[in-house]
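Human: Cast an eye over this sequence-structure pair and say how the chain folds.
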Amino acid sequence: MIRPAVPDDVPAILKLIRELAEYERALHEVKATEEQLHARLFGDDPRVHVLIAEHEGRVAGFAVWFLTFSTWNGTHGIHLEDLFVDPAVRGHGHGKALLTELARIADERGYERVEWDVLDWNEPAIGFYRSLGARPQDEWTTYRLTGDALTKLARS
């Protein structure tokens, strides 16, 4: 049911990215192309990975992840960038299976954490994550430097 993505999955991955963005009310922000995804996922020295959930022989969900590093623990961790399962096949355990595989990878490699962000209004996802034992990191706030601010700082 869960497997690493292969190059032929790129169109389905982009479709799921767009569906996730639509769910998160941000479809207009998706700029990724199949060419970009192919290069980043399967080119020289890929730094991002994708797990695929299959349902009845088709791509039904995905988990996009990359490595992090904890200076305090001295170990890597996994950052889950996106997790999405086609609403038509939810309830079949694909989301849990994707997170279980990420946990297995982390445990097998000696990583001490799997972490991700969730929109504060996404109650179904929050409930699902809590049911697996995940807890919010309330004392941390995510900051992002992007767009003009990123360019301005980079060129200062």
